[in-house]
Design goal:
The chain is α+β, with helices and mostly antiparallel strands and 479 residues long. Helix content is 70%, strand content 11%. Helix 1 (2-33) packs across helix 4. The longest helix has 70 residues, at 159-228.
Length: 479
């Protein structure tokens, strides 16, 4: 019995040693040749990473066994690193709302307009631009042969200019705020345009990819018929050409989509890529009130009206220069010698003690230059009024045109949804069955597929035109 037991133990020990050698040689081979283990082995290591790590921590028998055990740990760590890296590099998902918020916050043109508003507010402090105070001293034989001194301080004021200048600066502040609103309006409009274009090209590619799937089946069928001698090579060449043409259209749309994404990245001042969260290409809510008075809300029109006020304020500043300036001064001086005071002779030692004040007016006598500036300022007021009236009339006309186009596109979309699109689906299904059954030729089949494709393409184009019109109307009424 003892011999039998010893032999069993020896055999088990030999088997264990053999397994360890195989594992060691396998690991050496993998390390030396820089090869990855079999995929099934890697999958098992990935599934049992915690178990393998625990095993390597508590079942270290020798240095060679530790080398074998560390391989699963390395692969687990690599998988963890790759997973975290993939998650870190995932593009940020944006909705239209979040894109607008990010754009109005990060756009550099918006930031520049905000700084301009801040600067105009700071310039309000320059409204009372008082001239420098003059301090003069006179020394020498002022009153007698003795040496005396005279000190005087004077200040010039332009009271009629201050009020006009202050009014002009306030109008400039209001103008900068409207420019900020106009910039905000332009950025919002550009983001909406590019966002709609992204959804348009993506939807167009979805439709083209479905059509491409049909054409791929057509290619396989035409190839099989050609190989079996049921058709000539013309049918196969036609199928391949049409299918390749669809692929080129898809690539072109993908390029245009990347262009629009690049525009949005610039508008939002984004460093990395982003993903569109709301991918549904649907009709935007329409503006129901067709009143041209809504155009007054447009920031560009308000800015044009503000330019008239700024021009009028400039005219008042130019006119204020015709009013006189006021100068006030104070002086103190010395006197050396005898002086009769109340019938008595008093000697003065030259200390400054005699004082007084002065008042003066600066009158504009030569007003040729000032008059020319006033005339030019009046002309500028007329120019700004004309520009504002024309811009308002132009935008009101554009509003009416956009509303008429919106009504037309609504009718077109209604036709496609109720009639054209269902017909296109029916045409495509029946054509595929008829071609497979041999009821129609490949020429008729291609024509029918292209007809269905044109209907779907025209619908997506009409939807894009409708959304573009809505975006234009939103811009015109500043919504």
């Amino acid at each position: 019995m003892k011999n039998i037991s010893n032999s069993n133990i020896n055999s088990q020990l030999a088997i264990s040693i053999s397994k360890r050698r195989k594992a060691r040689y396998s690991s050496r081979f993998l390390i030396r040749n820089k090869q990855k283990p079999h995929s099934s082995v890697l999958q098992r290591w990935t599934a049992h990473c915690p178990l393998l790590i625990a095993h390597c921590q508590f079942a270290i028998m020798s240095f060679k066994q530790r080398i074998v055990c560390q391989l699963p740990i390395v692969y687990c760590l690599l998988l963890l690193i790759l997973t975290n890296s993939a998650q870190a590099q995932a593009p940020k998902a944006l909705t239209l709302s979040s894109a607008l918020q990010t754009g109005l916050k990060n756009n550099q043109s918006m930031q520049s307009s905000q700084l301009d508003t801040q600067m105009q507010g700071q310039l309000l402090g320059t409204g009372y631009d008082i001239a420098k105070t003059q301090i003069n001293g006179t020394f020498g034989q002022i009153n007698t042969r003795a040496q005396d001194k005279n000190f005087n301080v004077s200040q010039t004021f332009s009271p009629f200019v201050y009020g006009a200048t202050r009014k002009l600066l306030k109008e400039n502040v209001a103008g900068s705020q409207l420019r900020l609103q106009s910039t905000k309006q332009d950025i919002t409009y550009s983001i909406r345009q590019s966002w709609n274009a992204i959804l348009y090209y993506a939807e167009l590619n979805k439709m083209l990819q479905k059509q491409n799937a049909l054409m791929e089946r057509f290619v396989r069928s035409a190839t099989l018929k050609f190989q079996t001698g049921e058709s000539n090579s013309l049918e196969k060449i036609t199928a391949v050409s049409k299918q390749q043409e669809l692929e080129q259209q898809i690539k072109q749309n993908e390029a245009l989509l990347r262009v629009e994404k690049s525009k949005i990245k610039t508008l939002l001042h984004l460093d990395g890529d982003f993903a569109v969260a709301d991918t549904a290409f649907v009709a935007l809510p329409a503006i129901t009130v067709a009143d041209t008075a809504l155009v007054k809300q447009n920031a560009t029109i308000q800015l044009a009206s503000q330019d008239v006020k700024v021009a009028e304020a400039n005219r008042k500043v130019a006119s204020s220069t015709l009013w006189p300036d006021v100068t006030a001064g104070y002086f103190i001086q010395s006197f050396t010698g005898n002086q009769e005071v109340n019938g008595q002779t008093v000697y003065y030692d030259g200390s400054p003690r005699f004082q007084g004040f002065s008042v003066g007016l600066s009158l504009p006598i030569f007003v040729g230059s000032a008059s020319a500036k006033i005339k030019a300022a009046k002309t500028n007021v007329a120019i700004q009024k004309t520009n504002a009236d024309y811009l308002k009339l132009q935008m009101q006309s554009q509003f009416q045109q956009e509303m008429e186009q919106l009504t037309t596109y609504e009718e077109v979309l209604r036709y496609y949804k109720t009639t054209a699109l269902p017909n296109a689906e029916t045409i495509a299904k029946n054509a595929s069955k008829a071609y497979q059954n041999g009821d129609i030729s490949y020429v008729e089949y291609v024509q029918v597929l292209e007809t269905a494709l044109d209907i779907r393409t025209n619908y997506i184009q009409a939807l894009n035109n409708y959304n573009t019109t809505v975006i234009n109307l939103q811009y015109l009424v500043n919504q």
